[in-house]
Amino acid sequence: MLKRLIIVLSLATAVVVRATSVVTPFHAMLDGYYEEYLALCPVEAAVNGDNDHRYEAIWPDDLSAGYQARVAAMCDKYLAALAHYDRAALTPTDQLSYDTLKWSLSLRREGTTQFFRLTGVNQFSSGTLTFAQMGSGKSAHPFRTAQDFRNFISRARGFSQWVDTAIANMQEGVTRGIVQPRILMERVLPQLEPLMADDAERNIFFAPLRMLPKDLALADRDKLAAEYGAAIHDLIIPAYSRLHAYIKDQYLPHCRETAGIGALPGGKEAYAYEVRYQTTTDLSPDEIHAIGLAEVARDRAEMDRVQAQVGFKGTLAEFLTFVATDPQFAPYKTDEAVLDGYRAIEARVMAAVPKFFAHIPRTKFEVRATEKFRAASASAEYNPGTADGSRPGVFFVPILIPQAFRTPRMEDLFLHEAIPGHHFQLSLAIENNELPRFRRYDANNAYVEGWALYCESIGKELGMYTDPYQYLGMLLGDMHRAVRLVVDTGLHAKGWTREQALQYGAEAEGGTPEQQIAEIERYMAAPGQALGYKMGQLKILQLRALAEKQLGVKFDIRAFHDQILMEGSLPLAVLEAHVKDWIAAQAGK
User: d(Cα 380, Cα 415) in Å, to the nearest integer?
Assistant: First the structure.
């Protein structure tokens, strides 16, 4: 999963000059849009490695009604600008820009009318977590110069205001009957507690004080340390403390026992919006639910085949319990040993990459353990790097107890989160100077996660899954994404309870309902987000099958992957039209 910082799917480089020599009015309009977008989204500018002074010291109050109005106005402005251009008269690549921007603006504009600003704090993806990541000194905000530290102090002032807006919004939600599930807010409280602790060993915000610039005079370093320490004590700790106190004492008593948003005022419309936004399709929740059921059945049949292959006697549930509990699948003793296991997979994958990919990213890549403060609620994830080399792409692995870390999912997770999944797709896009900046950085969930899940499905071609248990791990991963189609729509469109979702997930994936808790609560916190993976994967597989069928011996897997990867993140309908045009061109040669 790519977390924007996390669920922000936009990535990483310094501003570069367009490679083409002629900047047309259409290109100028696209660049103007992206400048305005970054001004509204300075945290994404930080993720993008953009050091523009307009962005680097700002934390946006993006839950406020005023902010949402500014986003809506920007969308209206550029939708009107697009309408002045004759799409048919544009070049093929500019037509892709036209279609992609129109989709993005239209959906963003619609998003400003939904109620999600009232539910902006959760345990899965929230400004409370993103700000802490940035303040750790190991994320998108640099701590190299004195100005970097003062910029973060400025961000801390913005974050303090953000917290006050979040509290006001939640209180408005109480009045309107639009509140979070109680269980999710109960998960948030222990996340906030270390971040409001006046304890340098426990609170991650103190970490940058160990990174003060060494080239400063001692007196200047002491002054900077005092300023930064004051920001922690006067801004950051009080902000997290206020939020914690409000949730615990005032918000929790009003939180709901239901799991999905469908029954909330405006919830049905809000979920339908999220389904369109997250899948880039016009499919209904019922249609997606049916696709999920079919995929669950297909994966189950393949698991039965693997069970027969390894000769395990018993039911599928017993087989999955064996894989989940047998000591042979938990060989590690230390965090570093787990990371070394992933690095060995990296070496094997990279040996096969040239046969399947004509372009390999320049952006550096690392495997790291997830920070301990969020590891308990985190999934394996990728944070993008910068093409200028200032920050590598990082595959984060949550390791709570290394002795309990299971091996069967390692290969497919690496293919998804790292290489050739998120790292290749995101890095190749940001390194492609031929694309307008918004297509290099902006992204949609169905494409990004669909590509990563597609990469899991081609693991055998890449030399992975020679161990049947690693192949089973891929099937478990695929089943997991198929279950998401069923459970997410079940929770938010069919009135499922949390307990129903836990039970369904356990029956489909093996294990106990308790082992499903983090995932099911993720779907509760982020309606629709988990749908994009499987819908994107199925579309890419469908397009590859079409290309293989129609091109026959002319089909070139490296060229096909170029068509998927080298145009940036495209909505699925736009991607489908693009690949079909490429197939027709290849067939005509």
Answer: 12
What amino acid is encoded at 536 in this protein? Answer: G
Residue 378 pLDDT greater than 80, yes or no? no
Q: Could you give the CA distance from residue 589 to residue 585 in angstroms, rounded to a whole number?
A: 7
Distance of CA 527 to the CA centre of its chain: 14
Residue among 389, 378, 384 at smallest CA distance from 423: 384
Q: Return the structure tokens found at 52.
A: 């523009």
Q: DSSP per residue over 534-563, as a string?
A: HHHHHHHHHHHHHHHHHHGGG--HHHHHHH
Is 3 a residue whose pLDDT tops 80? Answer: no
Q: SS3 of 11, please?
A: coil
Q: Which two tokens stand for residue 474?
A: 């891929």
Kindly state the helix (H) or strand (E) to which residue 271 belongs, with its residue range. helix 267-279
Three-class secondary structure of residue 101 per DSSP: helix
Instruction: List the one residue out of 459, 450, 520, 431 whose CA is nearest residue 484.
Output: 520
Q: Domain ranges for the chain, please list them.
A: 1-116+273-284+329-470+526-589, 123-179+182-255
How many other C-beta atoms can be found within 10 angstroms of the C-beta atom of residue 127? 21
Tally of CB atoms within 10 A around 332: 19
Q: Which residue has the tokens 């970097």?
A: 148
Question: What does the angle CA 385 – CA 441 – CA 565 come to, to the nearest 5 degrees?
Answer: 85
More confident residue, 289 or 2: 289
Average pLDDT, the chain: 93
* Per-residue pLDDT, 388: 80
Which pTM value belongs to this model? 0.88
Q: What CA–CA distance (Å, rounded) separates 409 from 413?
A: 6
pLDDT digit string (tens) for 504-523?
999 999 889 999 999 999 99
